Amino acid sequence: MEKGIRGGNLNPSLLSLLKCPKTGESLFIESPEYLENKIKSGYLVSEISKNKYEIRNFIPRFVPQTNYADNFGFQWNFFRKTQLDSYSGHKVSTERFWKATGWPPEKMKDAWVLDIGCGSGRFAEVALSSGCNLIALDYSNAVEACYENLKHHSNLHIVQGNVYELPFANETFHYIYSLGVLQHTPDVKKAFLSIPFKLKSGGEVAVDYYEKTWKSFLLPKFWLRFITKRIAKDRLFSILQITVPILLPVSIFLGAIPLIGNLLKRLIPVANYKGILPLNQQQLFEWALLDTFDWLSPEYDNPQNENTARKWMEEAKLSEIKIHRVSHLVANGKKEK
Distance from first CA to last CA of the chain, Å, rounded? Predict the structure, then answer.
């Protein structure tokens, strides 16, 4: 069993932060196989209980290979680059990240930051630009897409793990964010309340949720999901590849009708960003297909309201609480010193 480790995604600084998610014990490397001075495969083993976690394709894995988030793994590996600002040529993710977090980039430099639900790395790419040490975590195999997109960043570490059992020591991170993720967990409150334990004293958190309003429940996705979430993900995606090119022009046409257009287009079950995001025609279609699948495929979709978001922040004993809106309902807070 190896205690030493060299280079790559699993370097000594990351290993010192990782803990067994079930017992909190430190972890050692067992049976490592290297490629270009990086640990490509092997196991992380807990000191006493001997719980064993696989390292596969350079990434530590603390969860089953198949789980309720498989649809996200499917979508982010298919749309690996779609929402990266470096690929789209726009600053959609950049603007959303900085508006949602409110964190000064210069203060993030060299700090340890955790991205919960990294997907293919759209917000990780933005956070990395600050010079922080970023751990990008996802429950699904979207970690594969994130690794392929961002592996050239020496300050990036990728982990496949569960928000309910975060495999890190308590009081590890200066900043933690989770954008577009928590509403897709089985128990949103439990997911959120697991986060502050991992913050350092004085550390800051930013999370967002789909907002629960009477208008949101009129969206077609909520009455369609009863059916669509039960359809095999590859089959659902094939259906959407046929229907989205038909529905998107209809939604765009209805949206252009004076006075009532915005209401009418909400009746069409397709993500329509015409006039909302600075996307060209091809990007409008690609984002429509991606986000319509994102609407209809998740096992869980649990929007929250402002009062609940604030109550959870208070229950976590966070201070400087701020509830605002940036695409979604955003909650910010700080762990008291």
Answer: 38
For 79, phi then psi, to 5°, come to -100, 55
The two tokens of residue 298 are 């998740």
Residues with Cβ within 8 Å of residue 222, at least 6 apart in sequence:
216, 301
- Residues whose CB falls within 8 Å of the CB of residue 131, separated by 6 or more in sequence, listed in order: 105, 108, 109, 110, 155
Q: What angle do CA 328, 332, 334 make, to 5 degrees?
A: 165
Q: Which residues pair with 189 in a beta bridge?
A: none
Q: Which stretch of DSSP H or E encloses residue 44?
A: strand 38-46
The mean pLDDT of the chain is 94
At 140, phi and psi to the nearest 5?
A: -95, 175
Per-residue pLDDT of 54-94, as tens digits, reads 999 999 999 998 888 888 999 999 999 999 999 999 999 99
Domains, the chain, ordered by start: 12-60 (no CATH), 70-212+303-335 (3.40.50.150), 216-296 (no CATH)
**CA dihedral of residues 163, 93, 221, 70 (deg, nearest 10):** -40
Burial 279-310 (b: 16+ CB within 10 A, else e): beeebbebbbbbbbbbbbbbbebbbbebebbe
pLDDT in tens, 306-332: 999 999 999 999 999 999 999 999 999
The residue type at 334: K
Give tens-digit pLDDT for 213-251. 888 888 888 899 999 999 999 999 999 999 999 999 999
CA distances from 299 to 67, 198, 224, 296 (A): 10, 27, 13, 9
Q: Are 255 and 271 in contact (CB under 8 A)?
A: no
Query: How does 172-190 read in b/e, with b if 16+ C-beta sit within 10 Å?
Result: bbbbbbbbbbbbbbeebee
Residue 113, C-beta contacts closer than 8 angstroms, at least 6 positions apart = 127, 132, 133, 134, 135, 173, 174, 175, 176, 177
